[in-house]
Amino acid sequence: MVEAVTRPTRLEISKGAVAHNIRTVKDVSGADKVFLTVKSNAYGMGLVPMAQAAVAGGVYGLGVAVLDEALALRHQRITAPILILGISPVQYAELMAVQHIMATVVSLDWLRIAEENLTGEQPLPVTIGIDTGMGRIGFRDRDTLAEAIQFVRNHNDKFEYVGLSTHFAESDSADTRYFEMQLERWHQLTDGLPKPKYYHVANSGATMYHATEVPHEVVRVGTVIYGVEPSRGELADGKNLRPVMALRSEINFVKRLPAGEGISYSHKYTTSTDEWIGTVPIGYGDGWVRKLMGFNVIIDGQYAPIVGQVAMDQLMIRLPHEYPEGTTVTLIGKDGGLENTIEDVAQHADLAPWEVTTGLQARIHRVLVN
Ligand SMILES: *Cc1c(COP(=O)(O)O)cnc(C)c1O
């Protein structure tokens, strides 16, 4: 997809806010090494610029969902450790080894086939994934897990035994029963087995609220570093986190309309009096969904509602008064005393916060700011 760099619409990533949140996570949890999950285009914010901001801001490594994301980072000369969180097709084992990309391994068959395919020129770093109750991927019984670890250690010319991991299904709510059940299973499955270089089990919730209960020297986090309080206010207020992204554009057409004029497809909005209407070059083709009709964007420190249907590439807002073309419009972020958060947008659109941002299309230009 084409990235529209000639259009004023852009997603800004604040390097300072990313670094601040990394420090906060380390302070709160005592974590020494942070893997920032940059899967799905860094939760939609921009894979490469976010990885650059994170490495500069003090993360140890990066977590991705699929090998292609890891290769895209290597292609941009990002040399930090990369962990693939999902299952990688085994035929790419040698490519991962050569690129120093850590595989998550969740079956003995995978290890056996990889062992045959690996040249041993570079050992493949592996983390062994354990399913303690997420029900997604990972070993679920101790014997097979022990066998997998043994296999890795027996073939230390081909593999490097780097990690043991699990993932929590619920670590960010006041009801901790499910979390505790998973933690208990973790101990049942792993206590007494050969130790890897590190355990990494904590996502944002476990890192922020359960650090003393889980191995937390190495954590894998996205949400908190991206400035979203994982429990949505239930367990903390999130005031020590800073929003890391802003979505901004400009009005590129301004007009005054008399009462009774329809705006956009199907005329879902009709002016009720003399109104100043501004056009903004962003639409549902950018992932700014049609449910956001009626949402207040910010112009010159004042709210301006989106009026009429959001079109594919453009939308209209009702201005407080006349503004010149080129005036900045803030869809997400701060302007003057006002702020729209990702959560505000999510709530209006009836989506989860990361559904909003992962939906922001590649056409939106991503830029790093201080
Ligand atoms: C996405 C993901 C994380 C990070 O989760 P957050 O809640 O955003 O911190 C950690 N581990 C795995 C396996 C993941 O898929």
Automatic annotation (TrEMBL):
Swiss-Prot/TrEMBL keywords: Isomerase, Pyridoxal phosphate
Catalytic residues at: K39 (proton acceptor), Y265 (proton acceptor)
Q: In which pathway does it act?
A: Amino-acid biosynthesis; D-alanine biosynthesis; D-alanine from L-alanine: step 1/1
GO CC terms for this protein?
A: cytosol
Q: Which residues cross the membrane?
A: none
Main role?
Catalyzes the interconversion of L-alanine and D-alanine. May also act on other amino acids.
Name a biological process GO annotation: D-alanine biosynthetic process
Q: Which protein is depicted?
A: Alanine racemase
**Gene Ontology molecular function:** alanine racemase activity; pyridoxal phosphate binding
Q: Which family does it belong to?
A: Belongs to the alanine racemase family.
Q: Which Pfam families does this entry report, sorted A to Z?
A: Ala_racemase_C, Ala_racemase_N
Species per Swiss-Prot/TrEMBL record: Leuconostoc litchii
- Report domain Alanine racemase C-terminal positions: 244-369
Which cofactors is this protein said to need? Answer: pyridoxal 5'-phosphate
